[in-house]
Design goal:
The protein is mainly α. It contains 9 helices and no strands. Helix 3 packs across helix 5.
Length: about 200
Amino acid sequence: MKDRTWERLYTIPQKIFSFHATRPVLLLRGLVLLILGLCGIYDPVFILTLLTMIIGGVLLLFAVASFLMAWRSGRGSTSLLLLFALLGAVGIGLLIRPLFIDMILMVVFGVWLLVAGLWGILSVQKRFGHLILPMPGLVAALVGILLIVAPFFGVAAVSWTIALLMLLSGAQMLLLALGVDAGKWVIPDGNREGKR
């Protein structure tokens, strides 16, 4: 008989995050998202720092799992022990200094934007010779310079974006939990009227 443990574990996130959950689950998720979104709007670094720490915790769990697998194999697999050390170091770093790691990631993203923007400007200018066509590359390069010079603004912008998405998702879940079909305000559905 086939073991369906992994299939059950795989369906747990689908049941938790699905919009077809029960009303109490939707209500609870909507309230949690609204609270987190409001905290993220109030403190622009809160959400991204929280997500970074959650990722660090998950990496630590994977590190413990790889260590246990290496220990259970009996031979102490070198690749699993190396994976344990790497995941453990990154997870601890994300838990201890999440804001510092976020700012490093913003600087890396800024360098990438700067290089991609300059490449876009040079390649378009060389090929077409117009002034308007290189504008996306110029904007990307300017945003890249801003992220390199002031990575905190990038962290704040990403946090505010995530917080706004959390607020909108939380409001949608609360409306669904309260029985309000928010979709009919946006997209008219003729089939639903026919059923009534």
